[in-house]
Amino acid sequence: MIEAINLSKIYPATDHTKEVFALKDVNVKIDKGEFVSIIGLSGAGKSTFLRCINRMNTISKGKMIFNGEDITEYAEHQLRDIRRKIGFIFQQFNLVKNISVLNNVLIGRIGYNSVWKNVLGKFSKEDIEKAKHYINEVGLIEKLKVRADNLSGGQQQRVAIARAVVQEPDVILADEPMASLDPKLSDVILGLLKKFNSENNITILLNVHVIEYAKKYSSRIIGFNKGEIVFDGKPNDLDHHTIEHIYKQDKKELENL
Amino acid sequence: MEKELILKPGKFEFTKKLNKILLTVILLQVVFISFSAVEFSIPKLIDGLPNMWKFLKGLFPPDFSIFPQVLEAVIITIQLALIGTILSALIAFPLSFFAARNLTSEKSIIGKIFRWFTQLIFNVTRSIDILIFALIFVSAVGLGPFPGVLALAIHSIGMLGKLFYESIETIDKGPVEALESVGASKTEIIRWAVLPQVMPYFISYFLFRFELNIRAAVVLGLVGAGGIGFLLNQYMMLFRYQEVSIILITIIALVLSIDYLSSKLRKIVL
Question: What is the least distance, in Å, from the CA of A184 to any CA of chain B?
């Protein structure tokens, strides 16, 4: 379903920096329905990898295949068709703060409607029903008309999850979705992702830095180190030695921090 | 390299002090020359005091009989400011999206040209005063409120446009990314991620500009653009100070109440 072939993301050298490989020859294949956790240090290329899948990042070398199509070189207008099938959940929720919860979730339907209908804000009855359905699923139906900035952080992230699932996506990419929340809420957020993974058969790719959560929720774990995949396997195969390998840092880099 | 760094501290302090003294002398010269250039003179001011007293005495008692006429002129002044502000907002609103750095792509040359051009329009219209525009338009379309409206509108485009595009440039990028991630096009991103964020600011700036335009519209009457300023000018030239006094009272009441209203409204939208 998602396949990266020799995928590299290179930031070219500037006057002050050397050329940086954010991703280096990444080869990975992810099947429909998997719950994959991606672990690694910050700067290891986890976010870059997710953003290459929905092409929010350009790809320097190699290929990205989504649903059998090579999307590496897709132009802006072609991206609409694949992006509507890929939900994205951000660390900072990224809701539109001064519009209602319902309208925030309806934004997830934009990729399916004509531009002028979206601009006029004319969503079909079906879209509104779907939005309400998923707002109910994340437990916020009583907040339907509330402005997004009147919600707590955890509630905002649940709205963001509803916005992603209302896209009826094949995959949801979640980039550190609990990193800016109270740790108590992690199970709520991940529980919702797990639920949509098993009930709606949505593939989940989760960037996470707490290994316990990766082990608890996912069926597969991928470890990144300096843009390269250094581990790919079942949660049970992840022993102390491999974890150390994934989180290995050069002494020199540590000094620079 | 290292030799240059080791400056003798005493010498350095001395040149610093000398620079300060020199700068002070130059500034004093400039101020002194300017005072004499504008023919500033205290005796002249004292000589003029009796005239000023005569004028102030003439203001009382205010003649309320012309109040209906004053009210009519005030309404024209308000209409002048309102139409001028609306016209400028209608033009500045779409242009500001071309001027904002974060909406035009860095690579596109057409985008750059548009941005440069709209910013030029804003800077030029903003830097030419309303009165100068009024003089130009009076000579083009004749006396009356119409040239006044044009002057207000053109000048306000610059200020509103600048405020508009600057508030677009400071939006939170998060919602824009979220819209991109669901597959939204540029128009849809503007509609759902940009507009909701900037609209409260746009309304607030509109009200603020209306407030300024009320004051400007009063002055515009003096150059023949109608309204309360025009009436004031007429009675001044006839030396009918009792009528002038009621006009001045009305102007003060108008400006204060519009200021109050607009600040109340702005608090609501922000």
Answer: 24
